[in-house]
Amino acid sequence: MKPKISDVAKVAGVSPTTVSRVLNNRGYLSEKTKKLVYRAMEELDYVPNDLARSLYNQRSNLIGLIVPTTSNPFFGELAFHLENICDSKGFKVMICNSSNREDKEMKYWDMLSRNQVDGMIVVSYNRGVFNERKLSHPVVAIDHYLSEQIPVVGSDNYAGGKAATTLLLEKGCKEIIHLHGPTSLNTPANLRKKAYEDVMCKNGVRPITLEVNEILNKQNQQRVIEQLFNTYPNVEGIFASDDMLAASVIREARLRNIEIPNQLKVVGYDGTEALQTFLPQLTTVQQPIEQIAETAIMKLVEMIEEKDQSEVSYETRLPITIKMGETT
Amino acid sequence: MKPKISDVAKVAGVSPTTVSRVLNNRGYLSEKTKKLVYRAMEELDYVPNDLARSLYNQRSNLIGLIVPTTSNPFFGELAFHLENICDSKGFKVMICNSSNREDKEMKYWDMLSRNQVDGMIVVSYNRGVFNERKLSHPVVAIDHYLSEQIPVVGSDNYAGGKAATTLLLEKGCKEIIHLHGPTSLNTPANLRKKAYEDVMCKNGVRPITLEVNEILNKQNQQRVIEQLFNTYPNVEGIFASDDMLAASVIREARLRNIEIPNQLKVVGYDGTEALQTFLPQLTTVQQPIEQIAETAIMKLVEMIEEKDQSEVSYETRLPITIKMGETT
DNA sequence: CTGAAAGCGCTTACAG
DNA sequence: CTGAAAGCGCTTACAG
């Protein structure tokens, strides 16, 4: 059996109360008692039981994290930073990969509630699920509106879309097409499209946005990309709303012997570390992933700590940077 | 306050014992009582407290996962599969990114122990840390030996190294160099090198292995790669022990105007999804990541369930496949 | 078929 | 400076 506080107490010749106080460094303790207790803990290889502690304290120091999948470098990198920051603040992270499925998101949500998480960070494209659930604990969303009560943190999508489009125009592209994820979802990411369309119109060029309906669906992506090249054989610039789309565009262009950047210029969005090792030549709009993670946790902790949530701003947009590559 | 079992009991007009039994579907219950209890739970929005449950049951259904970082697509993808499989078996996952630092691994290990994990999956390049810790719960390692007591699951590294080297030879390369991670660590991954050297010797060619000392250190990698090209300007084939190295090799070759695959052929190792979207043209040895995850969890659960651990095989090597790209 | 009591391993207000 | 008692929210052996 694992030793418990009462075992330590017996060995140290004190009461469990005293051991607990030594453990938490609370109240007045004589040096002698402390040493006795430390020695006993050492001798028994005592490990405190955080479950029991959390139960009594009504505080788990646990953060639930729901992402589509850490297989995707963007979410993998986001999860890394979120966990790291949580750790530095004394929080533990329970991770959930929803594959962006509503049913899984719901199950994970309930599971996390049962596990008494102090708060949750959610990356979901399915607003509906969360909109209706009563919030028994604070939640912060990344780059997607989940409900009126759930603050959102993300990159400055409008600035990103604007920068990408402007760059393509400056490089002399006339026919510029935007490849975008599903817009039926009301998310801040739609501002990438909005910015693209605004800039295009302002420059007297017709904006053309093609939509990829399903996120995480490679075949669907591929179909849309092929259609793009078939319908617009003279396309000179493509602004893809994420780097994986951009990579697929580059691949298709190569198959069609379209030279990049001479005949076609491509700009992506995200700028993960993985991209920078695997496809460093891609010009892309880089999201400040670590800063997004920091801000999200900061908000969440504020909500957890102070029960007055009126002070937490609903939406935060963090500045992007353009990473110049060889595709523009 | 959140409702607890006794609140439900009051509303349903039964005892807490009965509510608990309904919750766990244990023992004889009259249909009428069940309905009463369900209705009460519904009415109160009752959510069971898994912390309390785990405390009593001496079983958390929690798995701790320590990886270097989910930013790296290989670990990100591995984490995804591990979590998914855990979830399907009713386990929750607490995730820890160690950045491959011994001090962090130790802290995380202790943290997970305090949280009463039923078991741990560890990916670590630092054998020492774990070798000395007494195992208070089952542990399974991925692709690295941590101690005599900790089973290892990974890809068949020898077969992978052999396949890669053989391919390069078949494609006509004479001077083939192997880029390898730190070999001071005694890990199964060293078999990639061993296989390379065996195949080279068997074919009467001199094996040359260059070592990257620090994992996750980009500058160090870059230095070694530049040195490779400077020292061996006529290199015809490079077998890199992971895809990120291979990608850096390709980048450097491009800077030096070395044509791939005409002048130089490159084979990587891992074959993650991210690679397949970002750099699909790379020929690589593909690890069966999902299968590795499955096997690891299977072993871990066996160890958790049956206390007789003699039946669990110490090492498992899962079959690799060569994914042909355009770099060979 | 159902309930009162004890206990999982902690912590804290209260008393001394 | 230290301890006995109660309680965090559950579950289960025991009794009825």
Automatic annotation (TrEMBL), chains A, B:
Pfam families listed in its UniProt record: LacI, Peripla_BP_3
Keyword Signal on entry: no
InterPro entries on file: HTH_LacI, LacI/GalR-like_sensor, Lambda_DNA-bd_dom_sf, Peripla_BP_I
Residue span(s) of domain HTH lacI-type: 3-57
Domain of life: Bacteria
Keywords (A to Z) from UniProt: DNA-binding, Repressor, Transcription, Transcription regulation
GO molecular function (one): transcription cis-regulatory region binding
Name recorded for this polypeptide: LacI family transcriptional regulator
Organism: Alkalihalobacillus alcalophilus ATCC 27647 = CGMCC 1.3604
